[in-house]
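During the reporting period the student researcher (J.K.) took over the structure-prediction task from the postdoctoral fellow and processed the backlog of single-chain submissions. One of the processed entries is reproduced below for the supervisory committee.
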Amino acid sequence: MGKPAAKRVAGAVAAAAIVVAGTWGAGTLLRRLRQQRDGVGTIPLPVLPDAPDRARQRGPFSAQIGLFSLLAPGTGRIRVDVPWDDDWFFQDPRVYNPDLARACAALAFVAVSESYHFKSRGGDPADMENALAALGFTDCRTHSYQYRSRPVDEVLGALTDTVDVAAYAMARKDLAPRPGERPTTVLLVAVRGSYGSEWISNVKLPADLAEERAEQTEADLWTLEGVDHTGFERAAREILRDLVDYATGLRDRDVKLVLCGHSRGGSIANYVAGHVVRLARSPFSVCRRENVYCYTVAAPTVTSRPDAQGPAFRGIFNLCNPNDPVPRLPLFKWGYRRYGRDVLLPGYGDEGFDARFRAMASYFELTIGVPVPYRPSDRETVNRFVASLDERIPTRRAWSSPVNKLYFGARLLTLANPAQLFASHYESVYLSWLQTLRTDGLTFLPPGEPLR
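J.K. obtained the following structure tokens:
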């Protein structure tokens, strides 16, 4: 066979392979779409395992939980200690609780790890169910993971533009009653961070502020497009509705709500917490506004509402690493904020930073099994990056320009190695900081002050 003939044969084989692969891929996606529609083709929901009886335990205790970390060598499995104390929920949520912050950071990490159970079709441990059982929770609900964890589901999400969602876990813990008080139930919601095609939702912003929506009634709070980050707001609606439905069966109890999440999950948890506070005196009430305990980790900004950092939202704390570019986006200059208070972890140049960083790095390496991956001096790089965006892309409308989005990517690449820069964003980095800090070294930013 001559060379031209051989090339034609090779080309025909390649074309046939592409056709076969495309046909197989289309068939797989259509089959999965039917499964999603019919509610089949997924593993049964995990059941909470037998665990030490924590349901009525008073006073502090610690539970060791297992989870999966992409950074950990070998199997990727690690174990961390999670503190807990039911008495936290009889204390003022407006006072920062370092132990509750640690617990929320760990559970936000577990919310990501839970995906592997559904992705592996039950082959990996059900980390969320195991963790919550160890803390005394019951009625754990992880149904939202069923069609949001496998690669085929993520491809379908991108193709059908159904990426404005999030997987989340919800559970309850009925606390031992106190004399003369109503029975108390802690509702916990842990929201998974960015996963698969949900990344597309992270950049969905409204072009205009839509000032006319600023005076909405409480009944209109389900539809806030134009005021909030579109992708986060749409994902949060599902959780809000689920919470409202769940709380209708708890009208005879005093409900305390705990919300947590990392990155995208943190922003969604922040949004939910903010609107639970707003809904507290409406027919959609979940709990009293003074019963909201929210700790987010590495959350991007989520809302343009001018009162988002007001007194009503003081039970919401947002942990941010000064090295991490993600909590700086969308830009403060565009009018975006988080509900509640921003809390800065120790940063390069702060007094006492070196000793605190060594303690954090030691915990990280002991727990994860590799050296801590980020460089503290990158804080200066992040500041330059944000300053350049402020100058080039000063408004949300400017962000809608494809040219400016290209500038964003190019500027990021020219400032630093993105993989190195975003290492400060990892769940394991935040958890290691919080496991080695109390309140020393933290900076509680006043309302209206951007991260620096």
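The committee noted the following: DSSP finds twelve helices and ten strands in the chain.
J.K. will present the remaining backlog at the next meeting.
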